[in-house]
Amino acid sequence: MDAEDHVSAIQADWRRERPDLDPSPQGVIGRLHRVALALTDRLVEVYARFDLTEPEFDLLATLRRAGAPYERPAGELAAHTMVTTGGLTKRVDRLAARGLVDRRIEPGDGRRRMVRLTPEGLALIDDAITQHLANEHRLLDELGADDARALELILTRWLRILDAD
Predict the structure, then answer these.
(1) What pTM does this model have?
(2) What is the torsion angle, in degrees rounded to the nearest 10, for the CA atoms of residue 71, residue 73, residue 75 and residue 79?
(3) Which runs of E-coded beta strand occur in the chain?
């Protein structure tokens, strides 16, 4: 660890300005936040090669993970992608305009709308996920296998704790 990275400088400032406070959590949380931002920048570079935003990639990947026929009810898609139904509608509209997804009404339930990948959407997300995972492997390789495994265990445990709240 760098003796004086950006987070260390912030902590030093707080120690100087508010010696009554302990800024040590910033050592983990501040760095984790900065890592998340840096990773997002590196991940969206791959999505951009396919003219996709991060939420659009997420929506297509969610449909692809569903398996053939690569569709989900719109309400379920909203839950899987953690967006409102209004936000989902805008994304689906953009992807439908590009011919990557289509909508259909569920037979027997006129209120239930299904969203599915088109053949073009399937081909695009298959290419995009291949490059995305290669990028993620490259990013983790920079850490080394042992550190990556240790970090995964720590983050898994921490997410369980945070999700329990």
Answers:
(1) 0.86
(2) -40
(3) 71-73, 101-105, 113-117
